[in-house]
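Observation: inputs received (chain + T3D).
Thought: call the complex predictor directly.
Action: predict_structure
Action Input:
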Amino acid sequence: MTITIDTEAGIARITLSRPDRLNALDESTRLALAEEIGRCDADPTVGALVLTGAGRAFCAGQDLSARHELESAGDTVARTYNPIVEAITGAGIPVVAAVNGVAAGAGMGIALASDVVLMSESASMACVFGKIGLVPDTGVSWSLVRAVGYPRALGIAASGRRISAEESVQLSLATEVVPPEELLVRAHHLARELAAIPRTAFSLTKRLLREAVGGDLSVSLAAEARAQAIAAEEEEHHRLLQAFLER
Ligand code: T3D
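Observation:
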């Protein structure tokens, strides 16, 4: 299993579990992740969900060794990445990302889609898509610009630089930084607090706040899939991808 699910006292935790690949996402993991988030949301005994990663990373985004998935990038994004974002943002229950290590590419998108983003002191975010000639997807183009504004978002997307946990909080990409050993305890504590809010009130509040931000996420998700299809056709993308795989 590349994801594990534990439920305790009404709080479900999904752990991405491919630590030797920094929890990079292959297709079966992405499909399972979207499905399990939906299953937790539909389960009346689950009050909140915590997302985290096994080992030293939260998630390194697309599994770059699954080359065939990048050959039809538009389809891959629309069919297997967008449902993860929609499952998180559309869930009536609170979703807490416990970012235990690097959250890169689509991994950053999963963190930013969550309702609460807790980061371990040693964690970081990296909008690395451009480094392999791709464009931000998994909602990153939408959430990044809303959090930090256009000029900073462009700088972050263009450089692909690592953003420390402390800077992530300063930039409103994350809510709180905690020592590594306290991350899950704090995440579960917050999850329980949010789960105590009446479910209907919470889900309506979540929807109101998300809609108040303006600009339709679904429009951006579709645009990301179209742009990724174009970027992934480019020779330069294939060269950069090969260079990563041959390091
Ligand atoms: O069609 C489509 O799928 C389009 C969708 C795209 C969505 C995306 O997410 S695109 C972005 C994909 N992700 C990346 O480009 C990130 C690639 N990884 C990195 O840049 C770095 O690994 C990190 C910055 C995340 C972490 O660096 P570091 O120095 O801490 O670790 P490392 O040494 O680079 O990686 C450790 C191992 O994990 C290494 O394997 P090895 O040498 O020990 O056998 C490395 O190859 C592997 N790994 C890291 N990231 C990925 C990966 N393997 C497969 N896919 C990865 N994304």
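Thought: report the result.
Final Answer: DSSP finds eleven helices and ten strands in the chain. The pocket of T3D is lined by residues 21-22, 24, 60-65, 69-70, 73, 76-77, 102, 104-106, 126, 128-129, 131-132, 134, 137, 228, 232 (CB under 6 Å).
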